[in-house]
Amino acid sequence: MKLLALPVLLALAVPAVAATPAKPQPARAPAPVPADPATALLEQSRDAQGRGDSELALRLAQAALVADPARTSSYVALGQLYAAAGQTEFAQSWYEAALQIDPADASATAAIAALGAAKATAANR
After folding, report:
1. Does the pLDDT at position 123 exceed 60?
2. End-to-end Cα spacing for the chain
3. What is the DSSP letter of 35?
4. Residues 6+ away with beta carbon under 8 Å from 117
5. Which SS3 state, helix, strand or coil, does residue 119 take?
6. What pLDDT sits at residue 35?
7. Given its phi and psi angles, is residue 86 left (phi above 0), alpha (psi -120 to 50 degrees) or beta?
8. Concatenated DSSP letters for 45-86?
9. Where do the domains of the chain lie, and which CATH numbers do they carry?
10. What is the pLDDT of residue 9?
């Protein structure tokens, strides 16, 4: 008789456990999203360049450009990376692209002037 009572008790207990509502879990905060992804990408690009990882720096600056195509600092950053690699024509084109967006961009204007001065110095040697 005791053996028959055990399955009956289990049959009654299982639905009772399953019907017990789960304790509500506290809501998880979503992962923080940077307020300005392009700025974060440009900072990471500068950090990568500082560590000597030019390829990563270039990719991060390109990602910043995609994140905010109207931001001239992304174009200037790409120009600086190409200038540092000795690819002055590419650098010039990125600076000029920045000036097409904002003709008064001081960083792009100064970078173009620096490229011109470097070319003049190289021509005089």
Report:
1. yes
2. 109
3. S
4. none
5. helix
6. 72
7. left
8. HHHHHHTT-HHHHHHHHHHHHHH-TT-HHHHHHHHHHHHHTT
9. 37-123 (1.25.40.10)
10. 47
Q: Read off the pLDDT of residues 27-47 as tens digits, 9 standing for 90 and up.
A: 676 656 567 999 999 999 999
CA–CA distance, 95 with 30 (Å, rounded to integer): 38
- Joined tokens for residue 58: 């270039």
Q: Tell whether pTM > 0.85.
A: no
Tokens of 10: 């289990």
Cα 66 off chain centre by = 10
Q: How far apart are CA 44 and CA 52, in angstroms?
A: 12
Asked whether 60 and 90 are in contact (CB, 8 A), the reply is no
For 73-121, the pLDDT digits (tens) are 999 999 999 999 999 999 999 999 999 999 999 999 999 999 988 888 8
- The DSSP code sequence of 11-29 is HHHHHHHHHSPPPPPPPPP
